[in-house]
Amino acid sequence: MNARTISGVRGVVFDLSGTVIDYGSRGPVVAFCELFRRHGVHVSSDEARQPMGKHKKDHIQCMLADPAILSRWTQTHGDPPTEALIDQLYQEFIPLQVDVLQNHSELIPGVAQVAADLRRRGIKIATTTGFDSGMIEALARHVRSAGFEPDVMVCPDHVGQGRPAPWMAFHAARQMDIYPMNTLVKVGDTPADVAEAQAAGMWAVSVVRSGNEVGLSAQELDALSPREQALRIADARAKLAACGPHYLIDSAADLLPIIDDITARLVRGERP
Predict the structure, then answer these.
(1) Where residue 6 falls among pLDDT bands split at 50, 70, 90?
(2) DSSP state letters, 144-192
(3) What are the structural domain ranges in the chain?
(4) Is 222 a catalytic residue?
(5) Which one of the listed residues 22, 46, 54, 56 is annotated catalytic?
(6) Region 3-24+104-267: CATH code
(7) Looking at the domain covering 27-101, what would its CATH class be?
(8) Topology match between the domains 3-24+104-267 and 27-101
(9) What is the pLDDT of residues 24-73, one digit of tens each?
(10) What is the pLDDT of residues 209-259, one digit of tens each?
(11) Quick check: is 15 catalytic?
C-alpha cells in the first residue's frame, strides 16, 4: 500500500535509548561518565543526562559548557577545553559507547508488539538518534532480530547534523516516501526529541516512565517507595510537558491509542 493512500498517520519516527531500547536510557550515561572519569573528571549521572538526545559530539560539548563540569575540568587539566579536545574526546567516546551498548540494547517491553500493530495498519517506522551510524551497527541487528524492524534508521552522520535540526526526520520521510510531515509522529524521551518534532512539523509524543528524565531501569523504579516513584515520574512529566509535546505517555507500549487520536485529528483537519 502506498503511504499516500493511508488516511491519517502514515509514519512513526522513534528515538532509540529510553524509547525503543534501554529502559531508563542508562547506556549513554554510563559511557559519558566513564569518558570523563578516564580524564580525571567526575561527572554525575544527572549531569551526564542533561543534554541527552543531542548528537553525541554535541552532547560532550554541552557537558563541557556546564559551569560545574568546566570548573572541574579546568582544575584538573589547567586549561579550558578546546574544539580540538572535543574532537578528541568524541573519537574516544565512539568505541566506548559501542562497548556499553552491548549491555543496554534490550527492547523496552511492549515495543515489538506496537511495531507489529503499526505494520498491520500500514504505518511505516523509522528511528532517529544521537548515535552515529558506526555506533549502532550491532544494535541495529539486535533490535531487528528482537522484533523491532524499522524501514529506516537515520543517524546524524547521514545528514550532517543532529537534533534539534529536522534533517534526520526529513531524511526518514524521504526514504519512506511519506509526506506531508504532519502525517508523521515523533516518539522520544528528551526535550531534544520534542524540538526535532517541532522543527520538522511532526506530532510530538514524549515518553516519561521508561525514558531519560526518570532515568532508572524498570527494576530500580519498582524498588522505590510509591511516593518516591510518583515524585520522580511527576518531575519528569513536568519537565517534558514544559517543552510542548502534543502527548505524554509512560512508554512506547502505550502509543496505539495516541495514533488513533492523531488520526482522528488529522481527519478533522487539525495539524501539529
Answers:
(1) low
(2) HHTT---SEEE-HHHHT--TTSSHHHHHHHHHHT--SGGGEEEEESSHH
(3) 3-24+104-267, 27-101
(4) no
(5) 56
(6) 3.40.50.1000
(7) mainly alpha
(8) no
(9) 999 999 999 999 999 999 999 999 999 999 999 999 999 999 999 999 99
(10) 999 999 999 999 999 999 999 999 999 999 999 999 999 999 999 999 999
(11) yes
